[in-house]
Each structure stands twice: as C-alpha cells, then as structure tokens.
Amino acid sequence: MLPVQDPILQFTVLVLAALVVQLTVERIHLPGLVGLLVLGMLLGPGGFQVMPMEPVVDFLGPVGLIYVMFLAGLEIDLDVARDHARETMTFGGLAFIFSLVPAVVAGFFLLGFELRGALLLGALISSHTLLAYPVVERLGLLHRVSVVMAIGGTLLTDTLALVILAVVISTVEPGALAWVAPLVALAVIAAAALWGVPRLSRSVFRRDAVTRAEKALFVLVVLLVLASATEVTGTEDVLGAFIAGIALNRVLADREELREHIEFVGRMIFIPFFFIYTGMLLELEQLVRPQILLLSGLLLLLVVAGKAAAAWVTGARYGCPRTDRLLMIGLTTPQAAATLAITITASQAGLLDDQVVDAVVLLILVTALAGPIIVMRAGERIRARMDRTGERPDRGDEDEPVRREV
Questions:
Q1: pLDDT tens readout for residues 117-128
Q2: pLDDT tens across 59-69, in order?
Q3: Contacts of 81 (CB under 8 A, 6+ apart)
C-alpha cells in the first residue's frame, strides 16, 4: 500500500499534510518552511517512504523553485533601495563581500572544492531571505534606517549571488569561451524584459475587458516565458524568474489586489511543494552524520560572521545603535529561498555534492529559527525604547548617537 502511487491521492495527502504542518508551525511563531522541509524528509524516500517523488512532487517542486525566485524579485522594495541607495549599497556590498570571500577561501583551501564549487559556496552563503520581514512589519519598524538597509541590501546580495551562479553554470560547457554566449543572451533577455515587460503589462492591465484571472494568467506567462528563455539560452530558469519579478515589481505594486492573487497561488501550492520537494531529496540519517554537522557548523559560522561584520561596520558608519545592528543581523542571517535555489541548481549541474545539500538544509533550519527570534527580541527592545522616549519610527540613524544604547 505504501508508498502512495495514485497521483490524486498523493496530491491530497501532501496538501493536507502541508496545511496541518504550516498551521501548527506558524502558531508557535516559527517559519512554515521549516515544517515543510521536515515534512518532506519524513514522507520522502529518505524518511518513512510514504510518498515517492513521481509524479506530483517531481513536477510541482521545480515549478515552485522558479516561483520562489519570482517572488524574491517581486517583493524587493525598489523605492526603498532608491531612496536610501547609499546606505543599502554600502550594507549590501559589505554583506556580499564579507560572506563571499571567506566562504570561497574555506571552500577552496579547507574543504578541497574546485574553484567553481568554492564560488558557488560563496554565492549561496552571501545571499539571504527576509524571513523575519513580518516581525518588523508587525512592530512598525519598516521605515527604520537599519531595516531599510537590510531590506534594500537584499536586492544587491541576491542579484550578485545569482550572477555568480549564472557565470559558473555557464562554464560547465566545454570550451574556453563557452560561458560568454549564455551571459550575453542573459543580458539581452534582462534588458528586453526590464524595458518591455512593464510597458506591455500596463497596456494589458489597464484594459477593462481583461478580467482579473486573465491578468494573473498573463503574469504567469511572463514568468514561464522568461524562465524558459534563460534555460534555453544556457543559464538557469531561476535567473529568468528573478528577472520576471524585478520587471513586474513596480507594475504590480500599484495593483495590490492582483498582486495578492498572484502571491496567493504561489504560496498556496507551488512554494510549499518546492520545500517539500527539497526535504524529500534528503535522508534523515545523513543529517546527523558528523561530517554533515561539521560542514553545517562551518557554513553557519561563515553566515553569521559575514552578516554581523557587515551590520556592525555599516551600522557604525551611519550611526545605528547596537540594537539596530542586531536587528540587521537577524534580518539577514536566515538562509532560505535564494540559498536553496542556488544549492539545488548547482547540485543538479554536478558542481556541489549531496553532503553540501544536506549541510545547507540543516543551515536553513537553524537560521530560519534563529533569525526571527533575534529580530523579535531586538525589535521589541527598540519598540520599548521608542514608546518610552517618544522616538520616531524612522530614527536610529546619525541623529541618534550610538552611546544611548547600553
């Protein structure tokens, strides 16, 4: 009777299990993706073998991956990044460099990776996912300078990480200059999308004859076309999905109801299946192996050290109190969407082995738990001080001396 073979029954069991897990995990203030990863590990071939990969998870999982990257581009606040360009560029650049360089050095000299594998290790470590965004939103701290830097810096860190992924993946093909053509094609696709998609989208969206369902379908078509175009031209579909999110970012920002419908579809079906898919790729017994624990511990050290160094240097440069710097660390420590996308893509290309994938998933579990907790505690301290002193929500920059923080 097990594993479940009927596709409809597979889909039913997975949707029901995902609902129960997310409701349970979210109620104790933990990210739902943690529960979905664990669910995949328990149900999959490496766990209790309740569910096979084919055909449901094997199809919806990769689709969820490109939807994750699409939403990553869609949810970046481009206005925030523009209005605080100097601060966000400083923090984003430092967070990228302070994470990338030590990871590449550790991967090449300590772990014995070839250069391409070491670069990909640095790329996945340098990215981050704003899992704790709802916490700062709930505390009313979205306009605080430290939060603006952390959120805006995401655009730079994730973009640079994906560029490294594109370059490294392109070198897999034989030939000294084989990587040039895919990157040129990627640049052309990005330029065409960033110029043409917003104009075409506005033309479609302003027509009253086009229903909301048709507009949502148009967005899905843009996502799939750009993802397919980058895949066909020799890079990766996740890059096309990220470009689609950036291209539609401002257009959908003015159409909140349509954007909510689009995000709803992804968060309801595709994204949960991606995390279940990733969990099913793992074996439970592998996660407790000493070498996996040691590798995961090294990755955690690299993540925390890189993000903390960037937060402390940038915070000192722009006069952010210590609690605000902790807030930045908590916001940028979690590794999830971009990290997992780079890891899975590199693994499928044969550039990272299964041990790295296992260690990265363990890293995601730890940082997904720790990041929101750090943000909650630092944010509550900031909120309490604001209530006590009457400080404005957007304070915490050079107008507020660092010495006020104990």
A1: 999 999 999 988
A2: 888 888 788 77
A3: 88, 152, 155
